[in-house]
Specification:
Oligomer: single chain
Radius of gyration: 20 Å
CATH class of the largest domain: Alpha Beta
Shape: globular
Number of strands: 6
Structural class: alpha+beta
CATH architecture of the largest domain: 3-Layer(aba) Sandwich
Length: 301
């Protein structure tokens, strides 16, 4: 067991929330929450996903229950997972600086569960997936409004492009065994923490990934896929260019991932300038996958 990842007051509040949820849910609904918990994949094989079994069960629950009932089922799932974090994290071999992120993270999670009324708190919506992964120990909260997936693949297409870009011996072995380059630590932005999205916090996140890499020698480095790594941002939104420039200036390389409706939505959601340029046809958001090999990241850190 890893102590102190949830302080006593927060743990007590989670237990109270759990009791309240159990009172609202009937035995069948409580059983669905247990089944969903059991369906989550082992952390070493999660590959940033939640597994077909979990996804199928969640889809069945979506069809079966009213949104308000599914909301409470999923809240119970997340609460139960959070209460089990001290035991789960003992298996993850996390450095102390990352374990220290859990007390503020679990407080944020509790506040969101208590105060938000989120009608979309189900798979695959972003806040639910991020809360579920952190509460289950599949992802780790970090600085810079980032969560770090403890295991991730980059996909067959990105692996092939990455291999052609950098045919390193460790990539050759992974391609021969798995057909793709695995595993990586992958970062995701939690938009509920926008205030932490800045250059010093990102650097702190990268250093925490370096600390993780030292404890997990099988992991090949850090990856992420986002419109934030688009070189166009040098001119479109120069204040965000640090997201791409820090890794790229210290040994990372980019793999083009294309443009999607979600890229457009995410890139234009919080910026009048990007929305205007997109409407004028002067900017099309494009996603890139960044691959920062472990030795290059460790050398920078």
């Amino acid at each position: 067991m890893v102590p102190n990842v949830i302080d006593d007051a927060t743990a007590e509040a989670f237990l109270t929330e759990r009791v309240n949820l159990l009172k609202r849910l009937d035995p069948q609904e409580r059983s669905v929450a247990r089944e969903l918990q059991m369906a989550l994949p082992p952390w070493r094989r999660s590959s940033s996903g939640l597994g077909k079994k979990f996804i199928n069960l969640e889809a069945a629950a979506f069809q079966r229950f009213e949104r308000s009932r599914l909301y409470d089922i999923n809240k119970l799932l997340v609460v139960d997972l959070a209460l089990g974090l001290p035991e789960k994290l003992a298996e993850r071999d996390l450095p102390g600086e990352l374990l220290a992120m859990y007390q503020p993270a679990t407080k944020r999670l509790l506040t969101y569960l208590q105060e938000a009324s989120d009608p979309q708190y189900y798979y695959p919506h972003d806040f639910f997936v991020k809360d579920l992964r952190v509460a289950s120990g599949l992802s780790v909260p970090s600085f810079g409004a980032q969560d770090i997936d403890l295991r991730s693949a980059i996909g067959y297409r990105a692996s092939a492009r990455g291999f052609l870009r950098k045919p390193a011996p460790e990539y050759i072995g992974s391609m021969l065994r798995h057909g793709q380059i695995v595993p990586w630590f992958r970062i995701h932005t939690d938009t509920r923490r926008r205030v932490d999205f800045n250059e010093p916090e990102f650097d702190a996140c990268y250093r925490q990934i370096a600390a993780l890499l030292r404890r997990h020698p099988a992991v090949l480095g850090m990856t992420a896929t986002s419109w934030l790594y688009d070189p166009q941002l040098e001119s479109v939104s120069p204040r965000l260019s640090f997201v791409r420039s820090r890794p790229v200036e210290h040994g990372a390389f980019l793999v083009w991932s294309g443009s999607s409706a979600s890229d457009v939505q995410n890139a234009t959601a919080a910026s009048d300038t990007r929305r205007r340029l997109y409407r004028e046809g002067k900017y099309i958001p494009v996603s890139y996958t960044v691959l920062w090999p472990r030795q290059k990241l460790l050398a920078w850190a």
